[in-house]
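task queued by scheduler; priority normal; single chain, no ligands, no partner chains; default sampling; output format set to structure tokens
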Amino acid sequence: MKRGGAVEKEPEAVGETAGDAVETAGVVGETAGDVVELTYRLEAADYTSALEARLRVSRLGWLFRWVPLVVGCVAVAQIALRIAGVKEHVSLSASIMMLCISVVLPLSPRLAGRRIAQYSQRQGVLRATVTETGVTLASDTTNLTVTWQAQPRYRETSRLFVLISGDGNATGFTPLPKHGLPDRADVDRLRALLDRHLTRC
């Protein structure tokens, strides 16, 4: 209503506007959600642990678990028969090669981890920010965002959390080392955040 030419706002309208502002602020706070930050350099042991975790969920993982055992047993049996003279037509060189494969194959994640770590040293210190929408990785040479849809599952090891792609061969993976977190409480926060968005495997 008008008083002296001025327009006075109705109390109901003012109340509704304030309520809308409170509701909007609540939505913004809910959208922000939890945030966990990591600062780290990836070590060879981190890559080894990540590659081993990846093999656990990969289709080819069974090759690294069973082939060395089977090939190693066959190689030892053939070498024993060759030495005993029971089976002279057994190739000693082939048996030794099979034995080497049975030893090298299980060590391949460790060997690959060392080589990847040497290459990754060029990236310097990595900074990862984990939010309700995904993971952002930044370094002196890299700026990358990984969404939950791109890597929808994860596996935890004693050293790190490994985000893994959904394909059968687990082609893509992102290691998040625990030593990059400020304290132990952040490990639990990161685990809870991953559990809300990813499937543990």
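post-processing summary
- The mean pLDDT is 80.
- The first helix runs from residue 11 to 32.
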